[in-house]
Amino acid sequence: QIPKWWIWLYWMTPSNWTIRGLFTSQYGDIDKVIDVFGEKKAVSLFLKDYFGFPHDQLGVVAVVLIAYAVAFASLFAY
């Protein structure tokens, strides 16, 4: 678990948003039931419960990643 005073860094790291976007876009809409930790869950529900990656936030992830690209491009353009 991340300490409370470091949680801001977790939300500001581009790799966090990239991994969140990749997992959510590839597996977030799969409703196939899998056996995980002795329970039967859908893949999308497992991503939401275990990792905290809900599929409905995929648009937010896209906006944040585009904002990072624009920010870094404008930072190094001048």
Structural class: mainly alpha
Output the radius of gyration.
Answer: 15 Å
The percent range for helix content is 55-70%
Q: Treating each run of at least 4 consecutive H or I residues as one helix, how many helices?
A: 4
Largest sheet: 2 strands, antiparallel
Instruction: Extract low-pLDDT stretches.
Output: none
Number of domains: 1
Mean pLDDT: 93
Walk across the major sheet and give the strand order: 1-2
Report the end-to-end length measured between terminal Cα atoms: 39 Å
List the helices and strands and how they pair.
Blueprint: H1 7-12, H2 14-27, E1 33-36, E2 39-42, H3 43-51, H4 58-77
Q: What can you tell me about this protein's structure?
A:
By secondary structure, the chain is mainly alpha-helical. The protein has one domain (about 5-75). The protein is about 65% helix and about 10% strand. It contains 4 helices and 2 strands; from the N terminus they run H-H-E-E-H-H. It has helices spanning about 5-10, 15-25, 45-50, 60-75, and strands spanning about 35, 40. It has a two-stranded antiparallel sheet with strand order 1-2. Strand 1 (about 35) and strand 2 form a beta hairpin. Helix 2 packs antiparallel against helix 4. The protein is elongated and about 55 Å long. The protein starts with 6 loop residues before the first helix and ends with a helix. The model has no long low-confidence stretch (mean pLDDT about 95). This is ABC-2 type transporter domain-containing protein. Keywords: Membrane, Transmembrane, Transmembrane helix.
